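Hey, does this match?
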Amino acid sequence: MSALGVLVCGVSVGMFRAARLGVDPFQSLMSGLNAVIPIRFGTLYVIVNVILLLFSLVFDRKKIGLATLINLTLLGYVAEFSQHLTELALGDPGLVGRLVLLAAAIVIMCFGSALYFNADLGVSTYDAVSLVVSERQERVSFKWCRVISDVICVAAAFVLLRLGGQSLRELVGSIGPATIITAFFMGPLISFFSGLLPNPTGRTY
C-alpha cells in the first residue's frame, strides 16, 4: 500500500504537469521561494525538504518511513515518465481535455495519498506537517489542517512570486486553477478515500 500509493501519486503529478493548469500548493511555494532565493531550484528543494524532515524527526519520527524514502528518491522520475506518456497519448487535448485531465489527476493523487497514509509507513515531508498538527490537538481534523496549510502555501507563493518580479499573467504558471482546487479539496478527498480503503492501523484522517 505504501509503495503503490507513492507511485500512484507520482503518476498523478505527471498528469498535473501535462494539464498545464498550475501546480499543487507545495510546488507553488517552492516556485515562490525560488523567485527570491538565488540558488538552483534542485538545491533549494533539497534544503526545504531537509527542514521539513527535521520537523518530523523532532515531533513524530513515525512519519518517516518507506513512503518518505520513495517520495524523495523515485517520485520525480515516475512523474517525469508519467508526463511523457500522457503527452504522447493525448497530444494537445485542448482546454476541455486539460480540465478533464486535471480532475482525474486530483482524484488519483488523493487516492494514492490515502493509500500510503493508511499504510502508516511514512509520508512525504510536506504531508507530515498537517498530520502531526492534527494528531497533536483535537479541535481541527486532518482534512482542515491540510486545507489551512495548502492555503498558506498558496498565499505565501503569491507574495513571494510578486516580490520576485513576476506579473499577474506570469503567476498562472505557478498558481493556476489546479493550485486553487487542490488547496481546498486535497484534504477532504484524502479523508474520503482513507475511509474507503483498507486501514491496518485503524487510524482515521
Q: What stands out?
A: The mean pLDDT is 86.
